[in-house]
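Case study 2.
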Amino acid sequence: MKFRTVLVAVLAVATLGVMTEVTTPAQAATKVLQTKKMKKAAYKISNGYFYRNTKLTKRTHKASKYAKVNFYTYKSAKIRKSNGKKVTYYYVKNKSGKVKGWVWRGNLVKQPTYTRQKKDIAAMKRIVQGMSPDVQSDALGLFAHMNYKVAYHDGASERDLSHVIFQMEMGADYDNSTDIQGIIKTYKLFKGRYGSEKAQILNDYNDLDDVLKGRSDAELSDVAKTLIDDISYAVQYMDNQSGK
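Prediction:
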């Protein structure tokens, strides 16, 4: 009788151990391998769910409800799931902080910040403001309501940088050293970003430099016009979507 009692007790403990292991999958479902802070960046979420924590057992929001909302990154977690697969999740919040959670990186699409476009617009405006009154009259108005998302060529209103440079070409006084310096500053602003026009524009710039330094008898107005015209064409084909 005592033997049966002991045997039943042993079986009960063993069974309890098995049951405990089976009924607490959340503890074994994921393992966090690494977490770190992230630089704040804007993303849109395309699919999936938000999770309350890195155990990934509690969904808090369905992503499709927030497809048009920007979310901002704060932390990342490298996780090993129960099947052995390693995945990365980002902890994100919307602007107000009311919608937040851990989201699989593959469901997030990074949004451009257009930092370069904004800087180019500001730099070009400063260049124009330092040029002759004719250039300012023709070009400054184009900066009003300029859309930084299509900074280089908007294809509609012509309030973009390629048209600013075109107006610079049309209005410049090529006997005015201030206007020549404005053209040189424009060349330097976009240097290294001329794509297939890079070699041609470099030749144009070298021709202008030769005239200014007395190494060439070419007409200053001709070489300066050629340079700024080619820059205007190249800027028109810069990638508006490459903002960072």
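The beta strands are 30-37, 42-45, 49-51, 59-62, 71-81, 86-94, 100-104, 108-110.
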